[in-house]
Amino acid sequence: MSEAVAETVAARFSELYGAEPHGVWAAPGRVNLIGEHTDYNDGFVMPFALPHMAVAAVSRREDGVLRLHSADVEGGVAELRLDDLSPESDKNWTAYPAGVVWALREAGHAVTGADIHLSSTVPSGAGLSSSAALEVVVALALNDLFSLGLRGWQLARLCQRAENVYVGAPVGIMDQTASACCEAGHALFLDTRDLSQKQVPFDLAAEGMRLLVVDTQVKHSHSEGEYGKRRAGCEKGAALLGVNALRDVPYDDLDAALSRLGDEEEVRRLVRHIVTENERVERVVSLLESGDDTRAIGPILVEGHASLRDDFRISCPELDLVVDTALASGAVGARMTGGGFGGSAIVLAEEPDVDAITKAVTEAFATAGFTTPRVFEAVPSAGARSLL
Ligand code: GAF
Predict the structure, then answer these.
(1) What is the mean pLDDT of residues 113-122?
(2) How far apart are CA 138 and CA 117, in angstroms?
(3) Which residues are annotated as a binding site for Mg(2+)?
(4) What is the value of pTM for the model shown?
């Protein structure tokens, strides 16, 4: 299937630019199983890659010109000069690929220009990392075409820099690393402090289970203020507690740490979420690694949702409705996933219960007057790769 997609994207590239591309690459979106907002606190995360992916047909150029086109956005080919690229100058979709080129050059890599045609099946604004997929596919293509020799985690760091500085969104490193480094059939246990990682087998089908993604259709954007406010609150908490990052507050010392925060109620809630969330990731990893029944992770996902809703305060009525309805209809676990304020929830379910849960959630949305959600099964898929 990937090959057919690659051929289609390559054919469109040839129409646009009058020659065949030098290659075609893909990078996936992700869902996060557990470990939310921990990545900018040097903590733990556990995403896996979706089958949905951004695909890029790319040729290198030597003349300092970057040409960009997307099948998913109205408009023609955008033409930019590499020497003119500068942070936050561009507020269009082109900021994502152009930001990657900017970050590579700023880091001293000799990228001399490119023609790029992009096409993505990752739903945008759904909390499934459509931006990171775009960044990583461009970074991987340029890495190969200019023989830069960068590893997956190094590409992820450059893509994060592009998004932080060029696009202006203060995101962590999870999404880019997931897109660059995930492997099919596995979830990625990532320590965001040093980017050490472990591929943890995650094969739900073998246990008669499924993981559903419910896209609430409530759009969100990280460059808007709430994500940045949470990040700033966490940094304040770390400063008040005298640690480099909230990762350094041991779970066993949480009560003592919270009592040291005096009347900083808001910060206290943020700290409690981050410290307990890191501990939840560790519990999920050890359960999955033990080879015991995967159903045991269900209650931990539910705890994580409650913490995001009540302490971190980034859920919304649609996400809560998915979680409550799925659990009432027999789901083993459910939680919001990604940055929050809309986007998607995940639901862990026994295979025979999937249809009833999907129906119940869809009906609950209709009753509440919400837009019909989009429900699909997420199978842990491959990370970024060359297709053609
Ligand atoms: C978004 C960000 F891009 C990630 O870095 C991460 O913080 C996530 O929200 C929350 O876990 O996807």
Answers:
(1) 98
(2) 10
(3) 131, 163
(4) 0.97
